[in-house]
Structure formats: structure tokens, C-alpha cells
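Folded chain entry
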Amino acid sequence: MSGSPIESLDLAALLCSRVCHDLISPVGAIVNGLEVLEEAKDEETKTFALDLIRKSANTASAKLQFCRIAFGAAGSAGAQIDLGDAQTIARGFLEDDKTKLAWNLPRELLAKNRVKLLLNMLLIAGQTIPRGGQLKVDPIGSGATMGIKISASGANAKFLPGVPALLAAEAGAEPLDAHRIQPFYAGMLAKACGLKATIAMDGDAVVVTAQ
């Protein structure tokens, strides 16, 4: 990612801040559950605490697995990642009672950076439907040069005004902080893959593409 408008140390620091932000909530819930468990004097409270700990631990694990691929090295240079594994990780991170994922990609190996881009695009799309809805992932083309289209449908689906400029990964487009770094990083990944990442409204849905 030579020629980046952000220093590598700053990029690393901001991405680490983003990951920590995502993990604070479930880890904090585990700590709270343990405190409740220590003070519990009846079975109902103990059951509640154990359930909280279990759910929070599962959430933290899913987020770690997602972040490991989306932001981490995920293998040596030139490595490929199975899209089936990416689907499993994405479902564990994004799906819940409110949000469902329709995955229409073939099960095949894809270059590491393209899979990282895919997961980052899913993260951006998921944030546009905070009340839940459906995320649909479709291929653009096929094979090693396959692009990605992600549609997010849900109540009041929308994206923040600065996101398109961040996805362009251009110097000075938006001030970078721990919240803005992720779409900017997605744009950097797209450029590294020789793709252009965009986000736009399509009727009531938000569409994130890389092609």
C-alpha cells in the first residue's frame, strides 16, 4: 500500500483502536457477569450471570475471528482464503435476531486482500442498518478478478455523508480517527486489489460495491 496518505504507524494505531472499541462491550459484559456470579445467592441470579457470560464470550470470539481476517495478516503474502470460511466468519459476526445474511458467492479460494476487502465492505454495509435487516452479497464477474456487490436493506437504511470520500482513500478526504479509519482502510484494500470501492443508495437500500 505504497503512497498511502497515512503513515503506517498511524494506520496500525487507529486500526488497533477500532478493534479494541469493538471488543470492549462483550469483554466488559463478561466481567460484569463474573461479578454478578460472585455475589449471587440464588440459582436464578447464577443462571442469569452464566448466560450473560456465555453469550458475551461467544460474541467476543466471533468479533475476534472476524477482525483477525478483516484487519490482520491472515497468512503469508500472496495467501488465499476460502470464501466458505469467510462466510462462516461473517455469519458469526453479523447475523442475529434482527440481521440476516444472504451469501451468493461461490465456494472458492480468493486472494487474501480481496477477502479482507469483502469483510470490510460487509462491516460498512452492516452499519447502515442499525435496526437490522438483510445483507445480500453478490459476485461481480467470476474467478480471481471477481468484484463484490453488497446490498443492505432495512428500516431507514443510510450511510454517513463522509463514507464515500473515505472509501476513495484519498488524502485529506476526511479527518481520520478510530471511527473513520475502517472505511478508509477498505478503500486502501480496494486500491491494492486494483478495484474501486463505492457506496450509494439504490432506492431504499444501501449498495456497497468494489469492481
